[in-house]
Each structure stands twice: as structure tokens, then as C-alpha cells.
Amino acid sequence: xxxxxxxxxxRGMVALTVAAGLALGVAxxxxxxxxxxPDASPSASRSSGSNPSAQEGQSSKPLAESxxxxxxxxxxxxxxxxxxxxxxxxxxxxxxxxxxxxIPAALSGNETEIMNNGRSLGGATLVDSxxxxxxxxxxxxxxxxxxxxxxxxxxxxxxxxxFLQFPAPPSSSTELTFQLPLFASAAIQISG
Length: 192
Hints:
Layout: H1 2-29, H2 42-46, E1 64-67, E2 72-81, E3 86-95, E4 101-102, H3 112-115, E5 125-128, E6 133-136, E7 153-154, E8 159-167, E9 175-179, E10 186-189
């Protein structure tokens, strides 16, 4: 009886050892063929997975800055012409003031349909001086502006990522003026 138990125990240990060895071997492979790839930079390995990556066309220096009321500052980080026939403007809305900045309703514009969808940047326009045209923020089929919406205030020192989408001007027009109610106008260059 004792011999039979020991034999079964040994077989179990051998099977466990083989399974553990295979598991380690598979884990060690890690996708194969990565030997030729350079190691990730230290800064890339420290970043968390929840942070958005920099969008194509963005740089550390903003394309333009525009000051508004209550210590608000809009930094435009990119303006990219997309193949779908529109321009996407990305930026950061910062509160450089010492108190909570209430977002003025005027930023939403004065169109009833846009105002009914809450606070937004729906009052923004792109002006093409060369083509003598003004482009308004696009809307979806329900009349909602294709821009950041639903914010009412920004705490002191906070920054909020914002975006706006406009119809694309002709490809010959790359230098435009960005306008947002209550903010200074800003000259921007479209890429793409």
C-alpha cells in the first residue's frame, strides 16, 4: 500500500513540475521576436495607462493662446484637417485665476438649439480671411454641438481638455482665425 501511494505522489509531483515548467516557459516567451526592438524609454514606462496619449499634430508649445474672462485661458494645441471633411481643434481650457471660474453662457453661442444642450464651446468660429468665410461648430443629427459640453465651472489651477469640430475650409486655406465669445481672437494654422 505504501509503495502505491508513494508512486502516485511522485507522478503527481512530476506532473506539477512539468506544468510549472511549461507555464514559466510560455510566460518567458512574451510574444517572440521582440529581441530586435529597442527597450521602451524610461519616461514611457512610468506613464499610467489611463492618461490620454498626445494626439497627432500636437506639440508641447501651443499653436495659440487666447485670454478670456475670470482668469480663463484657452491654449490651442492642434488644428488638424481630417479626411472626413472637417477640422478638429484641440486645446486646454485653464483657470489661471485664484477662484473658481464659472463658465459664461456666452461661450455656447446664441443659437437656441445649441443653448438647449447645456454649456459648451458651441459659439466658437473659424474665420477664413482668404476665402472670406466663417465656419461654425458642427452639430450632430440631434442638434448637439460637436465640441466639449456639460461643464459649468473650473476650479482655480485646473485644466480641462477641450475639442471643437468645424467644416473644413478649402485645402488652400491653412491660416485661420479662431474666435470664441468673450475671448481674444487667435491666429492658428491647420495641419493635414
